[in-house]
Amino acid sequence: MEKRSNIIAYFAEPAQYTLDLIKNVHDKIGVEYRFLKSNSIASKEIHNAIRTKSFSSQIRLLHKDFRNFDIIIFNGFYKRELWFFILLNLFSKNKAQIGLESDTLLNIPKHFFKRFLKKLILSFLFKRDFIYGLPGGFGTHTNLFKYYGMSDDKIVTFPMVIDNSKFQKKEHNSNFTFLFVGRFIELKNINLILQSFLKLPQEKMQFNLVGEGELFDELSARYNKPNILFLGIQYGDDLVNAYKNADCLILASKSDQWGLVVNEAMASGLPVISSKFVGANYDLIENKDTGLIFDPEKEDDLTKKMLEMYQDKVQYEQFSNNAYNLMHNYWNYDLYRKQLLLVVEKMKNA
After folding, report:
1. Which domains are delineated in the chain?
2. How far apart are CA 38 and CA 40, in angstroms?
3. Do residues 58 and 34 lie in contact, with contact meaning Cβ atoms separated by under 8 Å?
4. I need a surface site. Which of 67, 217, 305, 335 has the fewest CB within 10 A?
């Protein structure tokens, strides 16, 4: 059977930012798509998915897609569906071109066996002629592909973007309001955020926290104060208003591959104070004058950055305007579409 010149994208789950991406990019340029899982904690929607089918039906569907599509964009490295495509490619004359879309940062395991196994798998994968790397950022996210052997000419950034048009520019608030949005888990370092906030002068300051998770009850009880509000999980207009009614986002993660809340905050004109371990820093904050980066392992560094953000009004307005303009004028769906068409052209000419 002769292949058609088509593209299909495989996504892990129907998270809200993925659904928005499909609506604003894939649907408009005719890219087909499938989900591996039918639901996501990042969306209320339920979709048809590969893994809801019987194993034999899954195999038939994947094989059909392999025969019918020249280009497969796949999110992630370790999914069994990807390795089925790899296996088919290794034993087929007519090969599909596969783009690996990932927001993963380079992280070399300290344990010898894990380090050896990861290098074995990714080096094998990245050196295949039919594999392309699609990192989520232009800087540090490309290092993973380069380190494990992919050549520069096969790496094309697929920027981590959101629907910026959903977010409205922040309002001027009577109290300077810091904001956290995310899961209430240890990795997000929320305790450090609140301890740092309480070291600031409390008059005309507020902290709002959006999200849920295993630490929610403990932290909401420990920090039960009039100017610290635990708003719970927010979707849609409620989430938009949470950003609109804040002045600065704090993301203190001990590790974060990207951090789409940075995109959401900046699309609302909020400057960001971000941990040095957040993946979005290189593309959205460093040398962009959109926020400040701090070291969560350095005592009182976050408190100092929060105080600076509050006190320096000129810098704050500059950060706010730059953040809003960067998201709406550059880091958006137009950029993603441009990069997608670029890699498709590369694959067609391979």
Report:
1. 4-161+332-348 (3.40.50.2000), 164-329 (3.40.50.2000)
2. 7
3. no
4. 217
